[in-house]
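PROTEIN DESIGN WORKSHEET
SECTION A - STRUCTURE
LENGTH: 198
TOKENS:
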């Protein structure tokens, strides 16, 4: 599988098991945030370029927004009822075509975006087995990812595939100079928060 240069996440059912409160709060896992951090660091280490990251979601979930800000992702696109609207926007911001993005998704509302993205990972919840089959028949699934923590599982799979895992972990552990420069760059980034319904 080829290298990705941007990474898009759906929120509900990808970061979470799909459950939430009436106020829209949900939970997230540090397994997942660590997986993404290692992946962004490894990408920086091996390509000297930045791996852009966005969450594109149909609702405005406060927990998702918190994760985006804390982890210094690049974009939080909310009220994205039509997620394909993220394509021209992020292609312009990132200078990277959708064909070079990865996309982690879990459900029907994500199919349109998945059609344009280069590497599509669908979360294999037992409840959505038939919809997964449909997505596979439509040729929009490159990876099926088990639960729980599908994000961490996919990040580890990708890091292993690229042969990047060992060095990324070693440099992260030793807080190497390269890790420190990555960390400073990461923490400088302020996410863009946009309402995609407009
Ligand atoms: Mg979802």
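SECTION B - SEQUENCE
RESIDUE ASSIGNMENT:
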């Amino acid at each position: 599988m080829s290298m990705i240069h941007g990474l898009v996440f759906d929120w509900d059912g990808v970061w979470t098991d799909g459950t939430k409160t009436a106020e829209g709060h949900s939970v997230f896992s540090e397994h997942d945030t660590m997986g993404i951090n290692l992946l962004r660091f490894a990408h920086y280490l091996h390509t000297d370029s930045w791996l852009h990251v966005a969450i594109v979601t149909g609702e405005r979930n406060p927990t998702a927004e918190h994760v985006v800000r804390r982890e210094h992702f690049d974009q939080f696109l909310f009220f994205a009822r039509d997620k394909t609207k993220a394509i021209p926007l992020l292609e312009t911001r990132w200078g990277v075509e959708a064909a070079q993005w990865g996309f982690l998704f879990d459900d029907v509302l994500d199919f349109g975006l998945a059609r344009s993205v280069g590497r599509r990972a669908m979360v294999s919840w037992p409840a959505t087995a038939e919809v997964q089959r449909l997505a596979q028949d439509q040729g929009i699934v490159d990876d099926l990812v088990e639960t729980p923590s599908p994000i961490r599982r996919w990040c580890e799979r990708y890091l292993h595939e690229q042969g990047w895992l060992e060095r990324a972990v070693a440099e992260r552990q030793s807080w190497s100079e390269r890790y420190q420069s990555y960390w400073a760059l990461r923490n400088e980034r302020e996410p863009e928060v946009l309402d995609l319904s407009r």
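SECTION C - NOTES
The two ends are 35 Å apart (CA to CA).
The beta strands are 6-9, 52-56, 75-78, 101-105, 119-123, 143-145, 192-195.
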